[in-house]
């Protein structure tokens, strides 16, 4: 069982603090990070991937100090990430895309094929430019599970997909902790997806943590409904 | 599920390119009206500039970096070739490799401060480097057998010409020599694009953040790209020096680098065929214009129009249009049954 702890993380851009003394803890499984726009969700991911340097705080995964690892070494360390805007390289084939993730995370090429099998992408010799949006999302997921990941960050992985596709993606995401052995953090605005995928969620608002805990309990707490879901809205569970 | 290492179309394309290149390199001098004439000498220089164009094309097409200093680097390659030859009298092949290495080092050194730049900033910095290199070679001249570091003869001493390589003495032989070297270098470059560095460069072009999150050390891979493309460009300088045995600073003006970049966009920055077409336009077009009695400087007008056409309607350049044409024509020329696609 892996445990990720962010302690007192503060990120400052000039006078703005996208994250203000945020402490979060995630235990194995799929964990959600939710909150309104500007809450600091993506900044949290950026701290974990090394794109944002916190002015205070620490990040610990099973005893490793993540902030001490340079951004480009974190993949080798076991970090994988997808972005809101999928990053599939258009001029490379789907397989080459996943192969890149394998190579730069220090995994053998065979792992790329295993990852493609995991997402069951047909005809992986097609160029990134020829893939549908759903297939590109599959390539993203494949790149995230390649090798031996320890922490997988998914930033709105189902954006732009229809319900049937979202459903299939959901199945792939929820199997990651069990089959790949990584802790998965999921940022998404789709509450149905979050409810279905995440055992626990943390809620951010204006750069602060306002709630954390089991998903259903957190989503029905009055504070979260006020900050995020709108006070008048009924939360159906 | 076991996969082939490379996609089959990619390998086939590379092999066809290699075969066609070798046939052209060895066979063109046999064509009536081409052998041992102005046309052949022009084509020789066009083939040489295809290497410099390939350097520009890989940087732009694969990494999204606009480098406008390539002709300056050709000059560096030529200068290093003459300098090393007059100092050592080593066989040309050895001198060429050494000159390529020197050019790679220079390319990396001038590229270092520009590594964090991209887009217009990088274009302007590299153009200024091209200007600086133009001033340097104009001031220092190219070595011609004299003493000292600059190797210039003085007083009434006659300049020493570097002889052509043993295998390329006559114009016909030299064309074949250049052709084979160009094809081999382009084949190596093509191979590099198909393996890890090429894949990584493509990822950097797609997006820096995405590449870093895959674990790419973007600085190291940009440096590698600068080193490789500079080395290839250095080979062009070495071959130019070999052709005439002596070089003139007037051939390496900074504006030529702008012209080369334009011809690469017209030829196509996304394939090495585009580089070959770029080389033809870059050196062949002014020659063609003066052959029909027009001012060679009209090339700026002609290529300017071509550039407008390329950036507005054909982003992949002429090479891209040819590939598209081939993709449409092939099923009509060689209809074949659809293969079952295995999943």
From TrEMBL, chain A:
<dbReference type="Pfam" id="PF00005">
    <property type="entry name" value="ABC_tran"/>
</dbReference>
<keyword id="KW-0547">Nucleotide-binding</keyword>
<dbReference type="InterPro" id="IPR003593">
    <property type="entry name" value="AAA+_ATPase"/>
</dbReference>
<keyword id="KW-0067">ATP-binding</keyword>
<dbReference type="GO" id="GO:0005886">
    <property type="term" value="C:plasma membrane"/>
</dbReference>
<dbReference type="GO" id="GO:0016887">
    <property type="term" value="F:ATP hydrolysis activity"/>
</dbReference>
<dbReference type="InterPro" id="IPR027417">
    <property type="entry name" value="P-loop_NTPase"/>
</dbReference>
<dbReference type="InterPro" id="IPR003439">
    <property type="entry name" value="ABC_transporter-like_ATP-bd"/>
</dbReference>
<feature type="domain" description="ABC transporter">
    <location>
        <begin position="4"/>
        <end position="231"/>
    </location>
</feature>
<protein>
    <submittedName>
        <fullName>ATP-binding cassette domain-containing protein</fullName>
    </submittedName>
</protein>
<keyword id="KW-0813">Transport</keyword>
<dbReference type="GO" id="GO:0005524">
    <property type="term" value="F:ATP binding"/>
</dbReference>
<dbReference type="InterPro" id="IPR051120">
    <property type="entry name" value="ABC_AA/LPS_Transport"/>
</dbReference>
From TrEMBL, chain B:
<feature type="transmembrane region" description="Helical">
    <location>
        <begin position="223"/>
        <end position="247"/>
    </location>
</feature>
<dbReference type="InterPro" id="IPR043428">
    <property type="entry name" value="LivM-like"/>
</dbReference>
<keyword id="KW-0812">Transmembrane</keyword>
<dbReference type="Pfam" id="PF02653">
    <property type="entry name" value="BPD_transp_2"/>
</dbReference>
<feature type="transmembrane region" description="Helical">
    <location>
        <begin position="38"/>
        <end position="56"/>
    </location>
</feature>
<feature type="transmembrane region" description="Helical">
    <location>
        <begin position="12"/>
        <end position="32"/>
    </location>
</feature>
<feature type="transmembrane region" description="Helical">
    <location>
        <begin position="174"/>
        <end position="193"/>
    </location>
</feature>
<feature type="transmembrane region" description="Helical">
    <location>
        <begin position="63"/>
        <end position="82"/>
    </location>
</feature>
<feature type="transmembrane region" description="Helical">
    <location>
        <begin position="122"/>
        <end position="142"/>
    </location>
</feature>
<keyword id="KW-0472">Membrane</keyword>
<protein>
    <submittedName>
        <fullName>Branched-chain amino acid ABC transporter permease</fullName>
    </submittedName>
</protein>
<feature type="transmembrane region" description="Helical">
    <location>
        <begin position="259"/>
        <end position="283"/>
    </location>
</feature>
<dbReference type="GO" id="GO:0005886">
    <property type="term" value="C:plasma membrane"/>
</dbReference>
<keyword id="KW-1003">Cell membrane</keyword>
<dbReference type="InterPro" id="IPR001851">
    <property type="entry name" value="ABC_transp_permease"/>
</dbReference>
<dbReference type="GO" id="GO:0015658">
    <property type="term" value="F:branched-chain amino acid transmembrane transporter activity"/>
</dbReference>
<feature type="transmembrane region" description="Helical">
    <location>
        <begin position="298"/>
        <end position="323"/>
    </location>
</feature>
<feature type="transmembrane region" description="Helical">
    <location>
        <begin position="94"/>
        <end position="115"/>
    </location>
</feature>
<keyword id="KW-1133">Transmembrane helix</keyword>
């Amino acid at each position: 069982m892996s445990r990720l702890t962010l302690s007192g993380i503060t990120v400052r851009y000039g006078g703005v603090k996208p994250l203000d003394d945020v402490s979060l803890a995630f235990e194995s499984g799929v964990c959600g990070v939710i909150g309104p726009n500007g809450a600091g969700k993506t900044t949290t991911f950026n701290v974990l991937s090394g794109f944002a340097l916190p002015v205070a705080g620490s990040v610990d995964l099973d005893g490793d100090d993540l902030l001490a690892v340079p951004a480009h070494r974190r993949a080798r360390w076991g970090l994988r990430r997808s972005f809101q805007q999928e990053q599939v390289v258009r001029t490379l084939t789907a397989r080459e895309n996943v192969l890149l993730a394998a190579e730069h995370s220090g995994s053998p090429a065979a792992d790329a094929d295993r990852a493609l099998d995991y997402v069951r992408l047909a005809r992986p010799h097609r160029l990134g430019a020829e893939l549908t949006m759903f297939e590109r999302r599959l390539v993203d997921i494949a790149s995230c599970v390649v090798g031996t990941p320890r922490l997988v960050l998914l930033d709105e992985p189902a954006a732009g997909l229809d319900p049937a596709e979202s459903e299939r993606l959901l199945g792939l995401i929820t199997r990651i902790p069990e089959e790949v052995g990584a802790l998965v953090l999921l940022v998404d605005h789709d509450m149905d997806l979050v409810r279905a995928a995440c055992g626990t969620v943390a809620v951010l608002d204006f750069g602060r943590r306002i709630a954390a805990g089991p998903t259903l309990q957190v989503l029905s707490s009055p504070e979260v409904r006020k900050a995020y879901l709108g006070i008048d809205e009924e939360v159906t569970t | 599920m076991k996969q082939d290492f490379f996609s089959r179309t990619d390998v086939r394309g590379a092999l066809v390119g290699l075969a066609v290149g070798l046939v052209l390199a060895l066979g063109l001098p046999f064509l009536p009206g081409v052998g041992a004439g102005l046309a052949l000498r022009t084509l020789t220089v066009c083939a040489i500039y295809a290497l410099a164009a390939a350097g520009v094309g890989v940087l732009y097409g694969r990494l999204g970096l606009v480098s406008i200093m390539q002709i300056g680097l050709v000059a560096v390659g030529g200068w290093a070739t003459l300098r090393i030859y007059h100092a050592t009298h080593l066989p040309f092949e050895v001198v060429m490799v050494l000159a390529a290495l020197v050019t790679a080092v220079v390319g990396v050194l001038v590229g270092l401060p520009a590594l964090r730049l991209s887009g217009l900033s990088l274009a302007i910095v590299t153009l200024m480097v091209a200007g600086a290199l133009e001033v340097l070679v104009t001031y220092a001249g190219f070595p011609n057998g004299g003493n000292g570091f600059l190797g210039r003869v003085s007083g009434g001493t006659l300049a020493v010409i570097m002889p052509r390589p043993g295998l390329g003495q006559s114009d016909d032989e030299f064309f074949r020599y250049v052709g084979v070297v160009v094809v081999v270098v382009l084949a190596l470059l093509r191979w590099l694009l198909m393996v890890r560095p090429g894949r990584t460069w493509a990822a950097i072009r797609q997006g820096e953040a995405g590449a870093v999150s895959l674990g790419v050390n973007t600085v190291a891979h940009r440096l590698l790209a600068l080193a490789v493309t500079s080395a290839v460009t250095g080979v062009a300088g070495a071959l130019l020096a070999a052709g005439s045995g002596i070089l003139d600073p007037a051939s390496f003006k900074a504006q030529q680098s702008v012209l080369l970049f334009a011809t690469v966009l017209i030829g196509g920055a996304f394939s090495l065929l585009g580089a070959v077409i770029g080389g033809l336009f870059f050196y062949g077009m002014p020659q063609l214009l003066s052959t029909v009695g027009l001012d060679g400087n009209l090339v700026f007008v002609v290529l300017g129009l071509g550039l407008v056409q390329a950036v507005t309607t054909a982003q992949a350049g002429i090479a891209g249009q040819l590939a598209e044409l081939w993709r449409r024509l092939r099923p009509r020329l060689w209809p074949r049954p659809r293969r079952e696609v295995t999943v």
